[in-house]
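Explain this one:

_____
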Amino acid sequence: MKVRGAVLREMGLPAPYAESRPLEVVELELDGPGPGELLIRVGAAGLCHSDLSVIDGSRPRVMPMVLGHEAAGEVVAIGAGVDDFETGDHVILSFVPACGGCEACRSGRAALCDPGAAANASGTLLGGERRWEGDYNHHLGVSAFADHAVVSARSAVKVDPSVPFEVAALFGCAVLTGVGAVTNSAGVQLGESVAIFGLGGVGLAALLGARIAGAAKIVAIDVLQSKLDLALELGATDVVLAGEGTVENVRKATGGKGAHKAIETVGNAAVLGDAYAATRRGGTTVTVGLPHPSKMLEISAVSLVAEERTLRGSYLGSCVPALDVPRYVELYQAGRLPVEKLLTHTIALDEINEGFDRLARGEAVRQAVVF
């Protein structure tokens, strides 16, 4: 079938993207779903910094690629061997297809699925196939910047059709990553203090997660005052404008000791160093950001032992999407997880380059292409 999609052919083109046009909206040929796969009519797809990291070359991927990884849509065709979906089902798509059988999946760590990681790195679907005709690659098994996409059924989670596509899409990355980092990776407990570095879609989702977890003190840190103002609206107890004295100001806001838990979402090694320094003795620092692979982190090695600190990574919020997505959607429907407040812009596919300019300048939290 013929599909309109946004193709990235070359990484590293300079901003502004409205001029360099790294994403080209073209007509593509998409094959039908193979065994274990679904054809999805994409309802909405979010613009995420992980997409921007591919565009600017800091997260290298195989080219050319139909970009986009955070989405929701409707099942319109089903491949052989798929028994748990029906046409018409609304689904949220996860950017790690969990095979269910590898060691990581069997131990409850779907984000580390070995076959899923291999498929994502090679630009294929979970089964190793490409459904785009020609030499186009899939982005993280999703390729959501297209009006239709073929995905592994292992990438899809059913969602109540009453949830608007542009809201449902955010659960596939921003919510899983941010809320999961707080509840699964950091294990924030009732009454603890949490410092959140970076207030994009993931960071603000982490803020919402910290509220649900019962954090007594939530310190939000960003370089933009507008993001700090929004963080206060969403429940932050304190805000810190990032710059000189960031660590000292976070410590001051947490009684001088530092935060029990810190969540770093920027993908910058220096910011991660600040997040680590802003935690207290016995504290935990969780990073979900994706810095360039060449960047290195320096910390005091002895502090890990003498102060019993923990530093850990979190991919996909350490979530199992089939379990966590329904839980988070229920919280949204109950009014306890107001994900819709993260959505600041809806755009058309033809406006996607301008949307990434807006994201790069920090003028948006989450934008969604609505089809």
